[in-house]
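Marked as duplicate of an earlier ticket. Keeping the data here for the record.
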Amino acid sequence: MTDVLAQTERIDAIRSRFSSLQRGFAFFDAPGGSQVPDEVGEAIARTLRDASANMGALYETSRRVQAILEGAEAGAARFLGCDPNEIVFGANMTSLNFTLSRTAARELSAGDEILVSSLDHDGGVAPWLELAYDKQLVVKHIELCDDTTLDYEDLERKLSPRTRVVAFAWASNAVGTLVDAKRVCDLAHEVGALAWIDAVHYAAHLPIDVRSVGADILLCSPYKFCGPHMGIAYGRAEVLEAWRPYKARPAPMTPLGRRFETGTPPYELLGGLNATFEYLDSIGGFDAIVPYERRLAAHFLGSLPDSVSVYGRPGTEGRVPTFLVNVNGVPAAAVAQHLADLEIGVWAHDSWYSLDLYKRLGYDKQAVRIGLIHYNTVEEVDRLIAALGSAA
């Protein structure tokens, strides 16, 4: 009982830092973007008030924005397990992916092959399809097993001396399935290909160490883990040093990662990003987040009524706490509206931007996506379960 009480007090203290969580509405839409603690918004406003300038000037506000940028690079490097000069910031993951893929494409030739995963969000696929159109490249999809896990044998069959990039999502934003990133990176490197990871959905739920998995490029987005809307990329130094960037000519070429950033950095968002990392550290980081979210997920799965079925992997292993569910054939829009009427937030969509997965699962318009995150409570999950049961 003491442990339960301590956990309740802890989650209440965490939730007290979010104004958006004080209104009785239960947010289960984290895959589409998390809620943001007040301190992050305050840091953004403070930057606009106290550090509205650009780098390179001799006065105080210019020094402040430089400190904010350097702090954000250092924080992102700790978050991803790399060096600060390997960090690249951008408007969002998709924009960064288009930028970096086009930079990499300077070295690609007609007939070169790109492998993408059938679990992927289209932000990780479309840049390569567009390049294939422009440069006569070949894009191949890696197949899935019946439980939505990546078919590693199919990956091995499709790798060839012409494979230049293996791009994949570390976690599915639609069904929550995880990919063995180190295994994929190792296979890519065996044929001399780059390992290119979309970690947008993964980064909210599990720790990242780009060195240990062998990533060459990795991208994520802070809006998934209680931060501002922007993109973060890691690029292995040896890879970035070999690329010629698209950039304005007078812009500096050092530090390394900044040569791939275009225009003035969004200092206010970087100020918010610094506050995001401080928030995550203050609640215990992933050492606290992972077991708590796993308990929430187990409670959710163990309490579902018979009228609700879950796509993809059973149980909590091999997945993050994101679930695509079918409520007894009820259209997703009707389920989402029913839950919204009960002050519970989920999304109704068709593909969740995972276009190849959508075709393979064939759930049409009957699937609702539910995403748990560390600020959700057991009581909210119980409300959700009851609402799903009444929706049927």
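See parent ticket for discussion. The mean pLDDT is 95.
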